[in-house]
Design a protein that fits this description.
This is Putative transposase. With about 30 residues, this protein is mostly helical. It is about 90% helix and about 0% strand. It is built from 1 helix and no strands.
Length: about 30
């Protein structure tokens, strides 16, 4: 098991979650 691969996957999930949160906030702001 290599930690690097899991860290990359974890970073991907974190960035994806941030994008979703920012996207929802933008949509709420425009309404």
């Amino acid at each position: 098991m290599r930690w690097e691969g899991q860290l990359d996957i974890h970073d991907g999930f974190v960035s994806l979650a941030c994008v979703l949160i920012c996207w929802r906030r933008l949509i709420n702001w425009t309404r």
